[in-house]
Every structure is written in C-alpha cells, then in structure tokens.
Amino acid sequence: MLLAGQPLLHHALQRAAGAPEVGHIVVVAPASHLQDAGALASASTPRGLVQVVEGGPERADSVRAGLRVLRPDDGIVLVHDAARCLAPSSLFSRLVREVRSGHPAVVPGTPVTDTIKQVDPTGRVVATPDRASLRAIQTPQAFLREVLEHAHASRREATDDAALVERAGGHVRVVDGDPAAFKITTPEDLAAAERHLADASS
User: Fold this and answer.
1) Computed over its alpha carbons, how large is the radius of gyration of the chain?
2) Strand, helix or coil at 91?
3) Which end of the chain is more exposed for a tag (fewer CB within 10 A), N or C?
4) Shortest CA distance to 45 belongs to which of 99, 74, 98, 6?
5) For residue 100, what is the DSSP state?
6) Which of 79, 81, 76, 80 lies closest to 103 in space, CA to CA?
7) CATH number, domain at 73?
8) Where are the strands (E) in the chain, listed by range?
9) What's residue 8's pLDDT?
10) CA neighbor of 46 nearest in space, from 78, 21, 13
C-alpha cells in the first residue's frame, strides 16, 4: 500500500531509523515479499542498519523470527507494525528511555473515548468496563530483550507482545501514546494519513 507515493514500510523505516537509540532494524516479511522488502530497506535507511528475514504464519512466529537474528548487544527490543508507519522517531526514543529507566516492558496507549461493552457469543452485554481505566494500545512496544524472549519461549499466542509478557507473569507499563501512531487498515485511515503528512509539511 502506498502513502504519498511510497510504501507504508518506507515511512515506518524512516521514522524508526530516525531515532538515535535505534541501531539495528529487522524487517520480518512474508516469503513472497522478501526481495521487495530488502530493496526497500536498502533505499530507505543507512547501509547496514536493516536486515530482512522471513516471517511465519502468525504474528508471534514472525516476532520470534526477528528475535533469532538479534545482535549480541541488542539489549532493548522494539516491536512495531508497518501499518502504524507514522509513529514518530520521538516515540521510539521515549520508549527506549522508559525501559532504560527501569521498566522492563513499556507500551504506548491512548485513552478510550467510546463506551466499551463486553458481550457474550449471543451479543448479550455482560459487562461495561470503566473507560477511565482503559487504553487503546499502539506500537512500537519496547522490552528488555530477555523479558521478550522469555515471553515468546512459552509459545503462546496473543494479539500483541505485551499480552505475552503479561501471561508470562511480567509487568507492563503504559505511557502516553502519540496521535500519529494510528493504524492504517481502511481507506479512511489511509486518507487520514495523507492529511497528516500534508499538514506536517505545510
């Protein structure tokens, strides 16, 4: 998918590479897109910063594929989605600083403004959580390497890596997210991203 004439991955790579704390990027891509991802990585980032590896059938499999090629000195790992390609470099930097300050797992989140209903399989409401305590979680998510590796060693599945850490008994801290780190999944999201870039350049 193109945004302002460039693939979403291009935008994501440029912002990740723009954080001084990021010294190594692993792009995990489907086998069918490895060559394209490699060419894009070379064109979008400084030489030698990025390597591309083949992912797996599920999200957790792909993250584990990335973990297997980390360098010995990669002590903090950020897991990111190219669909949130406008997450700014400053968010990457802030999350790394949070981990360095003593929090082994840190995720960005934004307050939930809608009322949320928990329903059963028939659609009947079973609970209405207090939205003041709810956050919509974004990426990148930051972890001490050993914490993330331990969580993935369980071979559980989850919708994000923070949930794996939680299920492994770890503590996850939520910090303020960034409005630009929204997920592009619909044509309306893509249009919003185009407007964001236009506003940023004006």
Assistant:
1) 17
2) helix
3) C
4) 6
5) H
6) 76
7) 3.90.550.10
8) 2-3, 6-7, 25-29, 50-54, 76-79, 105-111, 118-119, 125-127, 135-137, 141-144, 173-176
9) 96
10) 13
Taken in order 83, 179, 102, 96, the sign of the CA dihedral is positive
Angle (CA) 32 35 38, round 5°: 130
d(C-alpha 68, C-alpha 171), whole Å: 23
Instruction: Please state the length of the chain.
Output: 202
Higher pLDDT, 48 or 28: 28
**Domains: count for the chain:** 1
Q: How many CB atoms lie within 10 A of CB 161?
A: 26
| pLDDT tops 90 at residue 46 | no
Return the closest-CA partner of residue 96 out of 112, 86, 107, 83: 107
Q: Read off the DSSP letter of residue 196.
A: H
CA distance 111 to 90: 20
H or E element that contains 163:
helix 161-167
- How many Cβ atoms from other residues are within 10 Å of residue 95's Cβ? 26
Q: Which domain holds residue 187?
A: 2-201
Query: What pLDDT shows up at residue 157?
Result: 77
* CB distance 141 to 59 below 8 Å: no
List beta partners, residue 137. 109
Mean pLDDT of the chain: 95
The amino acid present at 112, given as its one-letter code, is V
Split at pLDDT 50, 70, 90, the class of 66 is very high
